UniProtKB/TrEMBL annotation:
It comes from Kangiella geojedonensis. SMART domains: VWA (SM00327). Residues 87-283 form the VWFA domain. Keywords: Membrane, Transmembrane, Transmembrane helix. InterPro entries: UPF0353/GerABKA_families, vWA_BatA_type, VWF_A, vWFA_dom_sf. The chain crosses the membrane at residues 6-23, 54-74, 301-320. This is von Willebrand factor A.
Amino acid sequence: MFEFQWPWLLLLLPLPLLVWWLEERKQRQQALRAPLFLYWKMQRQQGKKVKSHFPWYNFLLWLLLVIAVARPTWVGDSVALPSSGRDLMVSIDISGSMEMEDMMIDNQQINRLVAVKALMKEFIERRDGDRLGLILFGEQAYLQTPLTFDLKTVQLMLDETEIGLAGSSRTAIGDSIGLAVKRLKDRDAENRVLILLTDGQNNTGVLNPIQAAELAEHAGVTIYTIGVGAEKMVVRNSFFGNRTINPSKELDEATLKAVAEKTGGLYFRAKNTQELQQIYAKLDELEPVEDLDQSYRPSKALFFIPLLLAIALSLLKVLIRTLVSPKKRNEPLRNETQQEIHNA
């Protein structure tokens, strides 16, 4: 769409017409007051011709300059922008303990990682407008997906996650927090969030969780920790009979609570898939998605077009005058020479 930034300046366009009309009116009034012969003789003695035509060249020049000053602009169609929401990093434990099959979905026994991945899918879909990133950790922590608005890519990389990719025998919780802080520290201070899911305790890595939490606190990163795993599980054994065990005895809840409290977050305990789903819903409430639609309309300034045309017309007029003026100056000399020859 074509528009002007200062359209009120276009009111100046008819100004030359008004000036010309007033000048013509003044000349007509003078002609009516004086005899026509005296008016014609006065004009001839002054070597002038009565100009009754409109100065179209000057008007065109004025038209172009006024249009240029009014700042014509081409404005394109509205383009939607991603919402400037939160920068949310999800860190998931993929150590060997996540293979424990103490979760249920649709009456089917599944391991902890499968449950986390299945319920995380709905959580990711609801985060439209946020930048999501994915960290996986076991014996070491690594970045699976950097922060991005492309939630489908995050989901795809999560689906491809397998236990043991980062080592299966130990758990580096502190290093995973440190990696998340490194990725989030340069983001907007109010929107740095880490969700940490684990079923164990920190037993390897350079940083311990409390040290990493101090770094997160200093960087303004809010950490929500989730402890995953059932508290009771019946193990069937034909020789010793059925017995009940605690599959989450290695879960270090005290450290996870301390990490969350130090950074202004919360600790959640997910003993089954229902509780895990409720936790995801609670996180949506604590860190709601901004639903403000943002868009912009691309624009391109066009003032230079009429300005260049005005300059080109001015240069053309100067060029024509330069070429024509010498001929006019030579005409009186030529006439005088011819007159002298004729008199001789």
